């Protein structure tokens, strides 16, 4: 059983199953091994700022899901973590075609909804993986979705100063970025 949350272990697991999801569900062939960095959280007005336009050379789609230790904390919006998915706009449209053949990927709302669904798939896998590692079962928020930036930012655990950013390259360019921050959540058992 886990006594303390180990972000390195979870980042490594997150990297592995995001790659698997991209390759199996989205039919993306990664150009090279994923890379990750530890970065400072940029906070403004008690929110974690998310700047999608700085991740890529052009526009992107963004989805974020908050993580909570209990249903009560979810209702009170007292999160213990957040997972954010950034998709390069061109790659996001390719993923929509792979996930939903025949659907119009030219409609930004359809692309945004699929970005939110992909973020949800990643968050559910993360939640399941955390339980497998002996951590408490987490509750998830609905995804917040946007084009380029989530204007007002997202809730995050205030005691955390850093987040992890994992980048994936498709067609020899950065196409997918997953940012992740988690408070020290020990097992509740």
Task: Indicate the topology.
Blueprint: H1 7-24, E1 35-40, E2 43-44, E3 47-48, E4 60-68, H2 71-75, E5 81-88, H3 89-99, H4 108-132, E6 139-140, E7 144-147, E8 162-170, E9 173-182
Antiparallel strand pairs: 1-8, 2-3, 4-5, 4-6, 4-7, 5-9, 8-9
Structural description of this entry:
By secondary structure, this protein is α+β, with helices and mostly antiparallel strands. Helix content is 31%, strand content 28%. The protein has one domain (7-182): CheC-like (Chemotaxis protein chec), CATH 3.40.1550.10. The protein has helices at residues 7-24, 71-75, 89-99, 108-132; strands at 35-40, 43-44, 47-48, 60-68, 81-88, 139-140, 144-147, 162-170, 173-182. A hairpin with a 2-residue loop joins strand 8 (162-170) and strand 9 (173-182).
